[in-house]
Fold these 4 entries.
Entry 1:
Amino acid sequence: MSIQTKKSERDSSVEVYRMVGCLIVVALHAWMCIFGTGIRNISGAYISSCLADGVAIFWLIAGFFLYRNFSYRRVLKRTLKTIIVPMFIVSFLSFFLINNYLLNDVFSVQIHKKEDFAILARGVLGWNNAINGLGHFWYLYVYILVMILSPVIYAFISYLEESKQREIHFCIISLLLLVWNDCSNNQFGMFGHHAFAALFPAAIEIVWGHLIYKYKEKIVKKSYIVLSLVAFLFVNGIRMLIQLSRYNTIDDSACNILYWYSSIGLISASMMAIFCFSLASNYLRKWDRALCKVASYSFGIYLIHPIVISFLEKFTILDQLAELTLRLFPHITGKLAYVMSATLIVTISSIIVCAVGTFGKTMLNNGCGFFIRHFRTKI
């Protein structure tokens, strides 16, 4: 997730895009827990393709605002407050409490062995998550790394903005590099989801995000709503065909085309940005406040949705839902019905948990404030 902007600076079209990215991530994880990966049929591979680029969307969003009135001190401060602290709280609760219930059916504080802490320490030192059930935190580790190195990206963006031709050359060259990497089955770039293996493609997409938002007014048109959606569906159709071909000619590990750092991933996320911008700017203006309010939960949803999915799996709710939708609707319709209903259930459940957490935080802050004031009065 990108660093949140102040409420007064919120752009509802970006918030629509943020919500779409969040829903895509939730949908992908809900999809994978039932259907897994390496799906070798057309409908499954196509759905997997369309759900592949939630992370690419978030990298683009990071580029929208990160370098407006850039201040390295402010970036680090916001990263600590809005990313690291919530990340630590969820990690702490999962490590000592939640996983004990999910894995052992014991709702109490888990007493860990020294080996568990050693594994945890090695994971953190290796710039990677080592807590069961929080594999999606890889993105946050990379995000923190990007923020630490953000002055370098800012300097590069400043260089590009000296000439429009440089911006065009960057877009062409960076896209060709990703295409080359895709053609080499990721042997050229060796990109990944962790630490420095994700840093370079993340930086590319952040710069793309900066440029897309810079020229936003030129891509916000009613006619682009349909065109961008068709383009999104079309490029993912190409992605599906490429992936099915790879399953027949290469081993199952050759699926980088389905990842956020692929050339198609970048194009797909960009088309979705144009779609959301055009749709929101032309038809959703009266819903600005509501959209911004719902989108404010996106980071919280990202943090906890795998935990919610784990609880739903524990009680076989998602399995029953998949069985029901596939029985009621044939072929791809049943799969779409499952992924949409599962996404809705997980998202609403996550929002409820976030709302309860926000209420608890407010009550705690008010209580602490009262005692501090009372103590000062006594003194």
Entry 2:
Amino acid sequence: MKSIDTTVLIAISALSTSAIGQNQPISAAPDHCVAYQDDAAARLACYDEWATRHLTRQAAAASDGVPDPKRQASKPGQVDTNAPQPYLITMEAPARHDCKSSTFSEISRFWELEAGSDCGTFVIRGYKPISLSVIGSDSVNTQPESPVADHTASTAQPFNTTETRIQLSVRTKIAQGLLTQGQPLRRDSLWFGYSQQSNWQLFSGDLSRPFRTTDHEPELIYVYPTDVALPGGWRLRYGGLSLNHQSNGQALPLSRSWNRTILMAGLENGSQFQLHGKFWQRMSEDSNDDDNPDISDLVGRAEFTGIWNINKGNALGLTLRHSLRATVNGSMKLEWLHKLGANGQESSPSSLRLHTQLFSGYGDSMIDYNRRRTVLSVGLSLVDW
């Protein structure tokens, strides 16, 4: 332990001496490393990473013979905010570990990829948006059917094309540090999530306002943190694997379900842009038990989501699903989220959003997996609370 401390101090001292010799003061010691006061290994790794990166930068500047204007702008005693931060740390670490701290990037906070953005296990967190919305569609599935025998409703129901949609979604981390025990600044994690979406025929008084369909989606998710630099300023932040079950919990003839193994990854470019990709393989089922044998060809085998944080109060999202076959099916979902609460201040930590969404394609719900629909929804959502 003492030898490591000594190495770090020597590196910092060398940096300071070199900077003075060139009349270019460098940043002060990395105060954000003090955040790891309860984790000695993480703190030392933070100092070590800081020293290594500064040495590399100093050597590059010396070899070029060109002074660094950003360093010249620094004053003695000031922290160089332009200096590279420790591995996976996007900004200064907070004084304590906090998965809600804006110090870390949105992806890091969401999946708790770093030591500083870790909030521990068995904490209930939001997953997909928890929403209450009114939806209007170009059609409604009054008599659901499937190509399998005994999977077509016997009679049609006069459902309304206007419905109320309720979505609940939560998750909790059940384990961490499974493969990153030797990397004190990283946190891989294993999560259990559950999502539920219901379409409520609130405006069908003649039918006693039934729930037309309710989908259940439990899943087990493993997430591994990465920090791979890509062209254009993009960084690959995580990769993962999910075991996913989705069904509507109905008996025949309305039963619909499938199980999938999902590979996923996420990228970010600063605080404004994110890209998330998923590729999945449906788990095989006996033909006698398969409620929807053509679901992959219709709903899709891959999903790509792009997010643009226009500012701190507004975000746009686009999700595309594709069948990855010559016959192109899938869906498109365009959504806008506007922050509400705290008098509309952009800096507010409010999780409440005005949520507007336009969907077109297959798979708006499990019962509608083989029905192409266009749906507009407007409502309120809680995101990552």
Entry 3:
Amino acid sequence: MEYGDEVEPRMSDLAQQRPTRIRVDLPSIGHNLAQIRARANVPVMAIVKADAYGHGLVPVARHLAAQGVDQLGVAFPEEGIALRRAGIATPILVLGGIFGPQLAQFFAHDLEITVSSLDKLRQVEAAAESVGRKARIHLKIDTGMERIGVHSETCGPFVAAAVASRWCAIRGVYSHLACADDPTSPMTLEQVSRFADACAHFDRLGAPMPVRHLANSGGILNFPETHLDLVRPGILLYGVYPDPAALRTVAVKPALSLHSQVVYFKVVHAGRSISYGATYRVERDSRVVTVPIGYGDGYPRALSSGGQVLIRGKRYPIAGRICMDQFMVDIDRDSAWNEDEVVLIGSQDAEAISVEDVAVRAGTIPYEILTGLNQRIPRTYAG
């Protein structure tokens, strides 16, 4: 038989055999949604951008739709299109700024549009007229983030133009909180006040008030004044708190865990160095194992000689620099075997490593840890 004639395993099948994998517990996401609903007592727009914060866009969105979530939020139209192609009919808002050439796709896939300036409004009107169908839009007001949106203090003409538009139906008006993760920051209440002033233009115009939404995960936890008509949980939905300072007013369960297995075991003699740059040396003969995951998978290189993993229910340090595809762990005089489970995020026996723990050790935020775990790592789903 010639090479290529034999039926070989598909790459997707080989990936599923990889010892490194992410496990996502969908019932935990459902639990978190229920807890957020109970806290806010208003409809929920579940934010599933960035591959549902690394949890898997389509499987997570399907589960949320089955739980009756009111709306989904994505960053870019291609994320919304992927959900529509997966058969998900829940309303979807694209939160990011728009580009004119993309607008036809919003209509083709029934996506709601963020309109963030008078110029963008005119672009959307022209696109809607060209297809003979009204656009469903949310007006973006900038209350202090300085990212996209019309400044709250000058948004009157923008709101008036949107209300008067023949080709746009205003579904919502919203802003984004810059400091809501910190319950002591005065910035959030300043933004609440600015947003209220912006929304007052609808009353002055005698127009119906659209759905007002302001609260992100930090707002949900720390500032009930931000809950208004709808809340937009992101990282909280996945069982992770946005900041160590955030109040634990919602009891959530982490949905993601990251696992691998020992792929190699050796004894490293006293005085020898480990990994690139020879930055880590063992002071005595030590047992060292290799784990097949690296920064090429999105596991942070910043954890070099600073991160920890769990093996056989004990916590061990990462030894030396994390490589693109592997790293080493110093287990000192303990024992481990090839194919032993290694937990990078999650629990093992009585020990646990949270996403928040990893973020602190990497000198970053939990958001970056979750969204950095890329598609080279296969995902498996429970529930």
Entry 4:
Amino acid sequence: MSEIAQLKDLPDISFIDNLTMKEVEELTKNGFSRSMQGATGQTPVIYPASVPALVLKAMTLLGYQILQYVDAGPKRMLLKYSAHDDLDDLAGNYGLIRRPAEKAKVTIRFTLSDAKQPGAVGIPAQTRVRTQDGIYFATTEYAEITPGSQYADVEAEAAEAGAAWSGIEKGQINQLVDPIPYVASAVNVTASSGGTDIESDDSLTERTYLVPSTYSCAGPPDAYEYFAKAWRNDVKDVSVQSPSPCVVDIYFTLQDGTLPSKSDCDSMEENLRDDARRPMTDYVNCKAPTEIEYNIDVTYTIARSKSKIAVTVQNAVNEAVETYKVWQRTMGRDIDPAELIAQIKNAGAKKVKITAPTDVVVGSAEIPKLTTCKVVYGGLEDD
């Protein structure tokens, strides 16, 4: 079932009137009793361990399983319930295809040694460079260090597709696997980015939900949101604003609340400025949201009656704080200490005292940013 916000408030439906296993069992028994009474004129007595009781139990299980298939079949055709291959087929009705995983890209700088080279030094395509722990990247095209130059910057991509290959910081891809004469070193001068996993069901569901908005040529916000999220798999939040006539500002974040780089913004702008995606009079800008800093300073206690599981509760509280950090790192989401208190109490704490954060309104083009986090266990407290 989809978890996207646009569909979560739609009512659940059942094509079998929400029949339970117990109700199916009663219907099976009643049907058997009526048939026996019609055939013999007597109401049958069904003992728990009798052959009729076991047969009816087997019929109930089979009947209930069939009902589940009856219920699931039509649901697969509804966006709220569709998933996996069924969702692919449903999205295909709108001309959408699940986006594949993509390889992360990075810029590698190849630098010459002090030895005098005879001329231009070629860097073959597929020259491999790796990190110390064995994450491989390979150049995507042939390049040269021209005479008089000391280095050349070359684009490289990860050996495999996936989000795990993004976020490798500058200087960490520095082991030249395929030696090149006169080249002393190779190191990434940009962080790796653009690596994505295969598109999730929720992402494809949301794009399918938004695609009718793109049928308009008036440039509605939903249409820009759709095209922004269709640009790359790792786009998470999108806010579309028009500060003045014919100007459209699109603020976006990547997965885990990561801010887009300038190259990310430039790439999305180029994609959205295509005449097939925007009205001719719109000037589209893609930007990272402004970060609104906040701190966490919390002291909590545990009820003495829970002393035997105090360590378990402490671990649960730490997990709750981490969950809150992820929840709060959402564009346009107000900084909400009440949510933090609720999550810590749900983890088993008795009393929660919060010094920070405080309530802060966050605009649609802003995103909360945690700067410091202090969580103190205040000990056991009488119930």
